[in-house]
Amino acid sequence: MNPALIAQLRRLGSAPHVLLDPDELVAYGYDATMGYRGVPAAVVMAETEAHIVDALTAASEHGVPCLARGGATSLSASAVPPDGALVIDTNRMRRITAFDAERRRATVEPGVVTRDFRDYAAARGLFYAPDPSSEAAATIGGNVATNAGGPYAFKYGVTRDAVIGLRVVTPRHGLLSLTRGTDDAVIDLIIGSEGTLGIVTEVSLQLRPLPSHRSVRAASFPDGESALRVVAEIMERGITPAKLEFLDDITVESLERSRPWGFPRDAGGLLLVELDGDEAEVRDESITLDALLRSAGGGMDSVDPVRAERWWEARRGITASLARIRPAKIGEDICVPYSQLAPTFAAIKQAADDADVVVAIFGHAADGTLHPNMLYDPSDREERDRAFSLLPIVADAGLAAGGILSGEHGLGRVKQPFIDRAYDPPTLAAMLRIKRAFDPDNIMNPGAMWPTEPMEARE
Ligand SMILES: Cc1cc2nc3c(=O)[nH]c(=O)nc-3n(C[C@H](O)[C@H](O)[C@H](O)COP(=O)(O)OP(=O)(O)OC[C@H]3O[C@@H](n4cnc5c(N)ncnc54)[C@H](O)[C@@H]3O)c2cc1C
User: Fold this and answer.
1) Quick one: average pLDDT of 36-47?
2) Helix orientation angle between 279-295 and 224-236, rounded to the nearest 10 degrees
3) CA–CA distances in Å: residue 238 to residues 235, 285, 288, 292
4) Which of 43, 67, 73, 373 to mutate to test the pocket of ligand 1 (most atoms within 8 A of CB)?
């Protein structure tokens, strides 16, 4: 890396830790996506907003690519640095700087771990809804950058719906302080921009009252398509589940191999459903839902809160459990209208059979998100190539069903190559004008999300 930039980084504010040793930098070349790696030139362990501002300003002055890193749980390789990049790590910024229980609002630093914040709010009687299954490691800053969702997203919204204010530093405009009500357009551009427009230094969040009652059940079906058809029926009936998760047979098998969770191993498709609200609401919806599940032929099991928590723990552990089937995987993350869940599932399974690849499919079915995970053994080059060859096929299956490229993980580097399939040239050109308005020299996380051609070529 440029020696002048290194000297500048070392002089920053109250001297944040700067990592330059290649052995220490190795760990910063990866995120949770398998098969992607970069080699950063330096890491700044930011402790304050001023450290982020100064590091980004220095990178900008020297034209060095730069990206923020939170929990590094990205599954779209959006936190894999371009070679030679400056990584700005926010993990030392974990303070909850304001909490107003009466107005149900909080302000946090970007490195606050999502589950820590949820637990903190719950201990004060409040509910922070966005619940990515990675919440034990993911950060609020990363959640904002990816607009993270989770099982609660259908009923309670995604991260965007909870954000009421942001502080963000951008190469072109410096530090911006943005508030809902006056700066919504800019806030909504920053959310989900995968760190390509700027770095979030502070987040203000709206909380909710904790629901007083909840009730959890599972229903198993002979195959994945039948289970997903029932999801469409639940939606059409106007039931609003707090969570409605789908797991296919391979996913269930991987979980049971990892630990005896007690899921039915013979299930071709499994639905896990949580209802919440006040007592009457939960009781009434339970009656309607159980009748529907029984008439659809699902074997049913209603569970007590302790067992339910075990099930949700299992659900959060799916990604790791898939290694029980094959050591590695590449995950897709499409989102389709609920009426298209079953046919899209069938099309992907057929493509996987044709390519001789094992694909596990699960997802937050209520909002139409499906995660087809192509499993492979990295020591088997041909199997790896066959698994990766399914990425564009899955993306096309989602788009053909009227869906979108990403339900929640973002495009990152995994699905950036498919962006032209989803948007027409004028739309892409308009997007690039937005990118340039914040980051004229394209130093913010280059290679993620946006088309890679020179921006001029899109004019
Ligand atoms: C097991 C597992 C389960 C998952 N389940 C879900 C799920 O249910 N729902 C879901 O939405 N996602 C899920 N994910 C994906 C991932 O956890 C989310 O995208 C999460 O929001 C990333 O947060 P992070 O702190 O780890 O960010 P990182 O992985 O560190 O970074 C992700 C992106 O955000 C940018 N970024 C990070 N911090 C900042 C900041 N302060 N300012 C600007 N940009 C920043 C990075 O540059 C990068 O582009 C899952 C991942 C795993 C491994």
Assistant:
1) 95
2) 140
3) 5, 10, 10, 12
4) 73
Q: How many other β-carbons are positioned within 10 Å of the β-carbon of residue 161?
A: 15
pLDDT band at 454 (very low <50, low <70, confident <90, very high): low
Task: Pick one of 3.40.630.30, 3.30.70.2740, 3.30.390.10, 2.30.30.210 as the CATH number of 326-422.
Answer: 3.30.70.2740
Count of Cβ atoms closer than 10 Å to residue 287 Cβ: 10
What is the torsional sign of CA 403, 350, 292, 250?
A: negative
Same fold, 3-89 and 326-422: no
* Host H or E run for residue 354: helix 341-355
CATH topology of domain 3-89: 3.30.43
* Beta strands at 105-108 and 199-206: parallel, antiparallel or unpaired: antiparallel
- Among 30, 66, 74, 319, the mutation site with the greatest number of ligand 1 atoms within 8 A of its Cβ is 74
pLDDT tens digits along 138-159: 999 999 999 999 999 999 999 9
For 147-278, where are the alpha helices, taking DSSP H only?
153-156, 159-162, 184-190, 224-236, 249-258
Could you tell me how many residues make up the chain?
459
Backbone angles phi, psi at 16, to 5 degrees: -65, 155
Region 433-459: what's the mean pLDDT?
A: 82
d(CA 125, CA 114): 17
CA–centroid distance, residue 418 to ligand 1 (Å): 20
* Residue-wise pLDDT tens digits, 172-194: 999 999 999 999 999 999 999 99
The answer to whether residue 132 scores a pLDDT higher than 50 is yes
Name the 3-class secondary structure at 300.
strand
Looking at the domain that runs over 211-318, which CATH code has it been given?
3.30.70.3450
